[in-house]
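cron nightly-structures :: item 1 of 1
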Amino acid sequence: MKFAPLFTFFCRDVELIMRFYQGVCGWTDVPEYSSDIYRVLVRDGVQIGFNGWKAYDLLGLSGRKRQVTQEFPVNSMLSFVVEHPHEVDAAVRRVEEMKGRIVQGPFPTYYGHWQLVFSDPEGNIGRVTCGTLPKGVAIPTVDLT
């Protein structure tokens, strides 16, 4: 049995949020999978799906539907791994152009990644991370106790 990765999350405006991630990451839209309440992007065999509010009901999740005006805590984060630190830096401009918000970064992590944390136009949290730091940037010391 082979499982192909597909990360799906709920959003009010599937077209807006799909276009945001497409603009930030450059993934390919798959129009033949699209409907009024669903969009999908794909790259290297990985898919990201965007479900509209109606999908809560269709999936038997209506009791867990997030209210449109409700503030919600972070309970998931979509992460994109890139090969070079300059790709993290370039993502800042794309996030801002696509009407996202920079939460933090780019910054060095205690585990040696160069990272950017952002929110999309609906407040979902994402990050772009690279396993290498830019030249001259040191791994910070962090007290994890």
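cron nightly-structures :: done
The chain has two domains: 1-66, 74-145.
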